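Field log, afternoon session.

UNIT: design team B
ACTIVITY: writing a sequence onto a fixed backbone
BACKBONE:
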């Protein structure tokens, strides 16, 4: 069974934790490199990756001289094309997207909303299957792999989790 279900800022708390706890710690401990990498694994239509990008764009004060890289992967070319387009219907933006993000980072278009180019450019969408090796992606400071493992057979989950841990 597969799904392409995705929401902006899904469940809220993981994004609050990223903003309030993880990012401050990473900004303090990675001062020498001034670079942070994020991975949205099983990104579907991109709302999770774009949520991370908006959260980073909203940092106040914006860390000067820092590089943030967001990689988003999914095994489905069709959902990745939708994600790259950054266009969402009214229903999709009403599910979890705070109003201030909608007004700040989206433009109304026929039948929906277009995410701002600067947010779209902040995310690299790549085809990838968690059941296959993903060493070529490198390592990351933060990996979002939410609501994906439930669709992977129990016998394969351990290997995926071990490879994800190795990518941190």
């Amino acid at each position: 069974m597969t799904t392409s279900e995705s929401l902006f800022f899904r469940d809220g708390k993981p994004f609050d934790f990223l903003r309030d706890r993880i990012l401050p710690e990473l900004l303090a401990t990675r001062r020498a490199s001034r670079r942070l990498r994020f991975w949205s694994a099983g990104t579907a239509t991109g709302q999770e990756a774009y949520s991370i990008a908006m959260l980073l764009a909203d940092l106040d004060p914006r860390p000067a001289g820092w590089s943030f890289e967001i990689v988003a992967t999914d095994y489905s070319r069709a959902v990745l094309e939708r994600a790259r387009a950054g266009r969402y219907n009214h229903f999709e933006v009403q599910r979890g997207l705070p109003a201030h993000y909608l007004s700040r980072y989206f433009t109304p278009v026929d039948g929906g909303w277009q995410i701002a180019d600067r947010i779209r450019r902040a995310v690299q969408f790549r085809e990838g299957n968690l059941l296959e090796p993903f060493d070529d992606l490198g390592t990351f400071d933060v990996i979002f792999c939410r609501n994906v493992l439930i669709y992977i057979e129990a016998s394969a989950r351990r290997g995926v989790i071990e490879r994800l841990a190795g990518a941190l």
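LOG NOTE: The first strand starts at residue 35 and ends at 41.
NEXT ACTIVITY: expression trials, pending approval
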